[in-house]
């Protein structure tokens, strides 16, 4: 199995390293436009292979922005990938929203998608770059691929933050918690508290409404909290999430993972991308699960999807 990771910044490099540690892929190719970064990070990772028993071959290539021929040569190294993870673009700084990145990142993702698809026409694409719901929509529409093959990374990341905060509150290992987040990857995302459980028991039986509301909010702003602490976007959990999704697809695992999917009537939404429970496997999205949301959850989901639509409406201007 071959996975390519486009963008060797913090998130892309973490994704490549986690893929290597998972040791299921024959080859992981890390590509960046900045000379030396991919090559250096790939070599550094390969120098952990002995200690970490990694058989996966990690390769770094540079696609210079000022040399189309060399860039094409670099993308040639990614050819026939089973999965391509796109992390290219700038991360946000403290005080920025993910939508603030659309001007720069929409052009980058459009170009990267064109080049990666040319060399891996059968691949499944995982979009990580923000604003991720909108850039997933852009990648899908621009490529003309079927909706099962273009997926955005967010729900599993947000769900992991939700589980982290629940475990902190209950005082238990996170493995005892099961929780999901749906909707767009922004402050209006929908932590599904009613569905969350601790060792199979509803968390609503264990924590007060006030505490649960506090945890829901902490989850919704979880990315921003880390950006304030770090001075840039988080990378360990986002990179690990992308690698986990790529593994589920490459291994045809059939795992249900909250993923950004193109909605064509599911949850009453059309022509928009947002996070919903999806069965991931060979070919990408195998099935979208439509949960029986109550009125409040549906209203929250609609508002969250509405925020993605608002950002989608900015695409045309951003791509000029
Ligand atoms: C986050 O929430 C980078 O959007 C990503 O950390």
UniProtKB/TrEMBL annotation:
Residue span, Lactate/malate dehydrogenase N-terminal domain: 1-152
Stated name of the protein: L-lactate dehydrogenase
GO biological process: lactate metabolic process; tricarboxylic acid cycle
Enzyme class, first EC level, given as a word: oxidoreductase
Domain called Lactate/malate dehydrogenase C-terminal: residue spans: 157-306
Record key words, sorted: NAD, Oxidoreductase, Tricarboxylic acid cycle
Residue numbers annotated as active site: 185 (proton acceptor)
Positions with a binding annotation for substrate: 92, 98, 130, 161
Binding site for NAD(+): 7-12, 32, 105, 128-130
Catalytic activity: (S)-lactate + NAD(+) = pyruvate + NADH + H(+)
Molecular function in Gene Ontology: L-lactate dehydrogenase (NAD+) activity
Alphabetized InterPro entries for the sequence: L-lactate/malate_DH, Lactate/malate_DH_C, Lactate/malate_DH_N, Lactate_DH/Glyco_Ohase_4_C, Malate_DH_type3, NAD(P)-bd_dom_sf
EC assignment: 1.1.1.27
Family statement: Belongs to the LDH/MDH superfamily. LDH family.
């Amino acid at each position: 199995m071959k996975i390519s990771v486009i963008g060797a910044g913090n998130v892309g490099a973490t994704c490549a390293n986690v893929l290597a540690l998972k040791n299921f892929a024959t080859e992981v190719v890390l590509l960046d436009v900045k000379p030396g970064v991919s090559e250096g990070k790939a070599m550094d990772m390969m120098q952990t292979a002995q200690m970490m028993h990694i058989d996966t071959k990690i390769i770094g290539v540079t696609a210079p922005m000022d040399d189309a021929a060399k860039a094409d040569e670099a993308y040639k190294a990614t050819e026939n990938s089973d999965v391509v993870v796109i992390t290219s673009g700038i991360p946000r700084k403290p005080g920025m929203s993910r939508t603030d990145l659309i001007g720069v990142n929409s052009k980058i993702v459009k170009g990267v998608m064109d080049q990666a698809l040319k060399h891996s026409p059968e691949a499944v694409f995982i979009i990580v770059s923000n604003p991720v719901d909108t850039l997933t929509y852009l990648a899908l529409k621009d490529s003309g691929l079927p909706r099962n093959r273009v997926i955005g990374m967010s729900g599993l990341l947000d769900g992991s933050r939700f589980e982290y905060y629940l475990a902190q509150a209950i005082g238990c290992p996170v493995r005892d918690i099961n929780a999901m987040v749906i909707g767009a990857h922004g402050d209006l995302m929908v932590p599904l508290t009613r569905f969350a459980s601790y060792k199979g028991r509803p968390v609503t039986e264990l924590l007060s409404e006030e505490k649960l509301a506090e945890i829901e909010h902490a989850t919704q702003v979880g990315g921003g909290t880390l950006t304030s602490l770090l001075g840039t976007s988080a990378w360990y959990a986002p990179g690990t999430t992308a690698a986990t999704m790529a593994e589920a697809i490459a291994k045809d695992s059939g795992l249900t993972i909250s993923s950004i999917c193109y909605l064509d009537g599911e949850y009453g939404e059309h022509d928009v991308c947002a996070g919903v429970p999806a069965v991931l496997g060979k070919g990408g999205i195998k099935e979208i699960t439509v949960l029986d949301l109550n009125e409040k959850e549906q209203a929250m989901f609609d508002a969250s999807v509405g925020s993605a639509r608002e950002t989608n409406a900015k695409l045309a201007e951003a791509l000029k």
